[in-house]
Design a protein that fits this description.
alpha+beta, Bactericidal permeability-increasing protein, domain 1, Bactericidal permeability-increasing protein, domain 2, 2 domains, 6-stranded antiparallel sheet, 6 helices, 25 strands, binds 2-acetamido-2-deoxy-beta-D-glucopyranose, glycoprotein
């Protein structure tokens, strides 16, 4: 069976519509797969399972028997191929020991070649013949039970039990003698049934081993850019309930070259699996600390102690404004005479830097961000940058979140801002001047810049090949949750490199 399918079943983070609370410790991103999600995953799994069984070649079967008037017949069945598998019903249940998947009432056609040779003391010259036969297998059952545990931050899948049972089969001989037909029915029925059972059981086991390998090979960290990575290590064991599977990943941002971002764990975080009554396949809940950890990583990137990409620094130099005149001391002649007196007719620039890590809070309506920015006014004189004043700004912004592809994206909207003069070498600046300069810079640069940075969004941990569909966003302080259906959009085969979408 294709592992990515089972993986979706097991690791798409998840939900139930009945809305109980799951105790998931220490995970800042958690997921619940609801009964609907399990059902969908099961359908995919069965479909892929059929795909892996169809055209399966079973080993040759050889048997010999004493046939009246014919003598000792040695019969070989070869090229035994499973074809046209139909599944009548299937179910997935979460039991005490793990996830149980059962397929029942399946049918399959087998095609095969037969040949025999025989000799008797009456007719010492051997006779032989060959031809085709088909077998219809009915009432076939396939079942498996798997369990999931956390093994050093990865998910370990254990196949606890599996098997295949063939209830009935009928043989149709093309050509051949009637004694041969009787022999096949008498002597081979059991062999054919066993061959089918063994062949399919083997495939189930193989699929689960591959799936386990895939789970083990999933990254524990997703690199987001040159500066940060998302810790996607699993935390704790998956929680199996009657109709859903919940699991949690660490979910925090870490700096690329840092050992670890200081993180204050809130023990025993509880997340709800409810989706506001909507029947969705999965629910992914993200704690506001995920965003705050990102804020910390990018903020620290500003300081020289930690290596980070220039492009990721929370810093911006502005030397062009819509009202360009403002960036020349001449324009300030009457407003700030001191400035003009000391630096007559010099160009200026604004050095905007974030002065403390932005604080992100998830409320019941949206996400609120408080961003502290210093705008340093520099005068450019003879190739020298001379800071002359610094304005501190506290920006309150809200952002609504949307799902774009498999990313969670957002756009900041300015709510309000407040300013004060942090320091000045050019005397007191007029409040009106500070306000209008700040307002202009905010609207023209800071917010567009932040929104540009946010455009990329945060990749939701979902497996390659799956996409979100009809996603709804729920805000439940301090969690933001994505309730969504998923659809399988790509085909990923056993052994193929798979991972998270980034
Ligand atoms: C399978 O067997 C049934 C009954 O013999 C037949 O109707 C059907 O066409 C067969 N399918 C294939 C693919 O051979
Ligand atoms: C499918 O299962 C139902 C009940 O489980 C049964 O009534 C029906 O005959 C089955 N169909 C086939 C084709 O086996
Ligand atoms: C037996 O089946 C094979 C293909 O599986 C076909 O090439 C061959 O012609 C068939 N032989 C008879 C005698 O029907
Ligand atoms: C699970 O099912 C059992 C019996 O069906 C029931 O007693 C129990 O309350 C259910 N638990 C949850 C969490 O729904
Ligand atoms: C990632 O998260 C796991 C589980 O919480 C933790 O043990 C590990 O130290 C974290 N890795 C980094 C680099 O922070
Ligand atoms: C980075 O932020 C710190 C505040 O912790 C500030 O003192 C420093 O000047 C900033 N560095 C740069 C390069 O902007
Ligand atoms: C911008 O200001 C920061 C301090 O706020 C300083 O560290 C940095 O060197 C300045 N950058 C430029 C290009 O002036």
């Amino acid at each position: 069976m294709t592992p990515s399918i089972v993986f979706s079943l097991l690791s798409l983070l998840l939900v139930s519509t009945c809305g109980y609370v799951l105790p998931l410790e220490e995970g800042f991103i958690s997921g619940v797969i609801s009964d609907k999600g399990l059902e969908y995953a099961k359908e995919l799994l069965v479909e892929k399972g059929i795909g892996s069984i169809e055209m399966l070649q079973l080993p040759e079967i050889e048997n010999s028997a004493q046939v009246p008037f014919v003598g000792n017949a040695k019969v070989v069945l070869s090229d035994i191929t499973i074809k046209d598998v139909q599944v009548n019903s299937s179910s997935v249940k979460i039991g005490e020991s793990g996830v149980v998947l059962v397929v029942s009432g399946a049918t399959a056609n087998l095609s095969m070649r037969w040949r025999y040779s025989c000799s008797t003391w009456l007719i010492p010259i051997g006779i032989s013949d060959s031809g085709n036969a088909s077998v219809k297998v009915t009432g076939m059952q396939v079942g498996l039970t798997v369990n999931l545990r956390n093994q050093e931050g990865s998910l370990k899948l254990t196949l606890l039990d599996y098997g295949c049972y063939v209830r009935d089969l009928s043989i149709k001989l093309e050509g051949g003698a009637s004694w041969l037909y009787q022999l096949l029915v008498d002597a081979f029925e059991g062999n054919i049934a066993s061959a089918v059972e063994d062949g399919i059981s083997e495939k189930v086991k193989e699929g689960m081993v591959n799936l386990d390998n895939l789970l083990q090979s999933l990254p524990k960290q997703i690199s987001l850019d040159k500066t940060s990575a998302l810790n996607v290590s699993f935390v704790g064991n998956p929680v199996l309930s009657n109709s859903s599977i919940a699991m949690a990943i660490n979910g925090l941002f870490t700096g690329k070259n840092e050992v670890s971002v200081p993180q204050g764990y809130e023990k025993g975080l509880k997340i709800s699996s409810a989706c506001g009554g909507l029947p969705k396949m999965i629910k992914v809940s993200i704690h506001e600390d995920v965003f705050n950890s990102a804020s910390l990583v990018y903020y620290n990137c500003n300081s020289s102690c930690c290596s980070c990409a220039q492009a990721d620094k929370m810093q911006l130099i502005v030397d062009e404004l819509p009202d360009q005149a403002i960036l020349n001391t001449a324009e300030w002649r009457f407003i700030v005479p001191q400035l003009y007196k000391r630096y007559p007719n010099d160009d200026m620039q604004l050095n905007i830097s974030v002065s403390s890590p932005p604080v992100i809070q998830v409320t019941y309506q949206d996400i609120d961000a408080t961003i502290f920015v210093d705008i340093t006014i520099d005068v450019l004189e003879d190739g020298e940058v001379i800071p002359v004043a610094c304005i501190s700004v506290e920006i309150s912004a809200s952002c609504a979140v949307e799902i774009v592809g498999n990313n969670i994206g957002s756009r900041f909207r300015l709510q309000k801002f407040s300013t004060y003069l942090k320091w000045s070498k050019i005397g007191k600046l007029h409040m009106y001047l500070i306000q209008s300069l700040t307002s202009s810079v905010l609207k023209t640069f800071i917010l567009p810049y932040l929104n540009f940075k946010l455009k990329r969004g945060l990749p939701l941990p979902i497996i390659n090949g799956f996409g979100f569909q009809n996603a709804n966003i729920l805000y439940t302080q301090p969690w933001i949750a994505v309730c969504s259906d998923v659809s399988f959009i790509g085909d990923y085969y056993i052994g193929q490199q798979s991972g998270y979408v980034s």
